[in-house]
Amino acid sequence: MDLDEILPEVGEYGAYQKLVIWLILVPAVFPCGFHAYNQIFLANVPDHWCNVSQSGEFQGDITKNFSIPVEVKVNGQVRYSQCLYIDNQSGRTPCQNGWIYDDTITNSVVSEWDLVCDKDFLVTLALVLFGTSGLIGNSFFGYIQDGMGRKPAYFIYLLIQCIFGIATAFAKSYTIWTIFRVGVGFTIPAILGTPYVLAIELVGPSERTVVTILINIAYSLSLVSLSIIVWAIRDWRWMALTTTLPFLLLFLSWPLLPESPRWLLSQERYEEAEKILLQMARINGKNVPTDFLSKYKLKKVDQLKNRNYGVRDLFRSKNLRWKTIIITFLWFANTSVYVGLSYYAPSLGGDEFLNFFLAGAVELPTYLFLWPSMDRLGRRWTLCISMIIGGTSCLATFLVQN
Questions:
Q1: Which DSSP category does 48 fall into?
Q2: Residue 301 CA: distances (Å) to CA of 87, 152, 204, 252, 295
Q3: Exposure string (b/e) for 281-316, b if CB count within 10 Å is 16 or more?
Q4: Where, by residue number, does the polypeptide cross the bilayer (predicted)?
Q5: CA-to-CA distance for 244 and 337, rounded, in angstroms?
């Protein structure tokens, strides 16, 4: 007998799991959505042009019309040059006295530190470092999650993210700001994976599809919520604080959030696992078999006789090796396209806040298809159909553009 056999007896998805998942683990997903994408708006690049006034203040459209050359963008749009002005003696000249920024967005790190023209690569560099730190952190935090447990691991991620997220608002230079953003990025996507792992380990096998869908819905809602916040708050410092401070409330859930019984049993912490399972059974109105732990201990002893498995075992047999390679490739392709489209959404044209809102909201209807199809069609067919639809849509977008 193992945990998958005992969970139907204590309730696979009863009142206990619903309370924990809906009230704690679903909100616990929001920090990842907020901090994974708020940098798009913290480093928003507003329309800008050379400051050509002698006094350091822009004098109006007449001066702009005479002093700033017009250029045609790749998409055919005509705009004022962002990096050149017309000098009476030398013609078109790079900006010498700074820039004037469109005041539609009150302030961003770009307008505060003039990260435009010959410095525009610094915005992309910060985003690359942010993403790279996430890859490193995800590998590192995996060991924390398995070594210390799901619960403490999540709160460690949350603490790091809140510290660096708040510190971001007080950065005095681009370098310091980038360092703080790397600190935030170090916890992404680990801070999303841990609540998900804990959620599926609290429910029975038959309910894992439901929980997976719920966590993904929560993530989509976090993007929708972020779009509303950044639309309402246009100053990047207040934006950084507003997308971080609310998550300090999640620390109040520490005494209410249980550790994963499955992880506790794997660590032979039977008494703690028994306490959680008894509480789960009581709230779900079920009874735990009295001989559960004794049977589990016997099975654990038998398992210890077998050798441990590692990453290398995924490549020992031809069948498993190909499955590992294919799944890894699919994950990489999905993640790259998803993140790329999400980051690019505000730049599609029109209202950037509405674009990002729609990018998050458009995911929600897809779960109406995924929910039943994952159980009826299976994971493989659902994945294939989704990839075909997604790939065709991306290709169609490219063809329409051209």
A1: E
A2: 83, 27, 23, 38, 10
A3: bebbebebeeebbeebeeeeeeeeeeeeeeeeeeee
A4: 19-37, 121-141, 153-171, 177-198, 210-232, 238-257, 322-341, 353-371, 383-400
A5: 26
| CA separation for the pair 280, 247 (Å, rounded) | 27
Cα(390)–Cα(253) distance, rounded to whole angstroms? 38
State the pTM of this model.
0.87
Look up the CATH number of domain 1-46+107-306: 1.20.1250.20
Sequence ranges of the domains in the chain: 1-46+107-306, 48-101
pLDDT band at 313 (very low <50, low <70, confident <90, very high): confident
Collect all residues with Cβ–Cβ distance below 8 Å to 166 and sequence separation of at least 6. Answer: 240, 241, 244, 245
CA 104 – CA 113 distance, rounded (Å): 17
Tens digit of each residue's pLDDT (9 = 90 or more) over 317-329: 888 899 999 999 9
Which alpha helices (H) appear in 233-317, and where do they start and end?
A: 236-242, 261-266, 270-284, 292-304
In this structure, are strands 78-80 and 91-94 parallel, antiparallel, or unpaired? unpaired
* Contact (CB, 8 A) for 109 and 42: yes
Q: Copy the structure tokens of residue 367.
A: 């779960």
Q: DSSP per residue over 186-209, as a string?
A: TTTTHHHHHHHHHHHHHS-GGGHH
Chain-centroid distance of CA 212 in Å reads 15
166 and 114 Cβ atoms separated by less than 8 Å: no
Strands (E), 193-275: none
Asked whether 296 and 265 are in contact (CB, 8 A), the reply is yes
Q: Which amino acid is at 141?
A: F
Tell me the C-alpha distance between 334 and 13, whole Å: 29
| Token pair recorded at residue 122 | 């610094």
Amino acid residing at 313: D
**Helix 352-361, helix 208-232: angle, nearest 10:** 170
- List, for residues 152-208, the tens digit of each pLDDT value: 999 999 999 999 999 999 999 999 999 999 999 999 888 999 999 999 999 988 888
Q: Tell me which residue has tokens 């520490």.
A: 254
Query: What are the two backbone dihedrals, phi and then psi, of residue 99, each rounded to the nearest 5 degrees?
Result: -130, 160
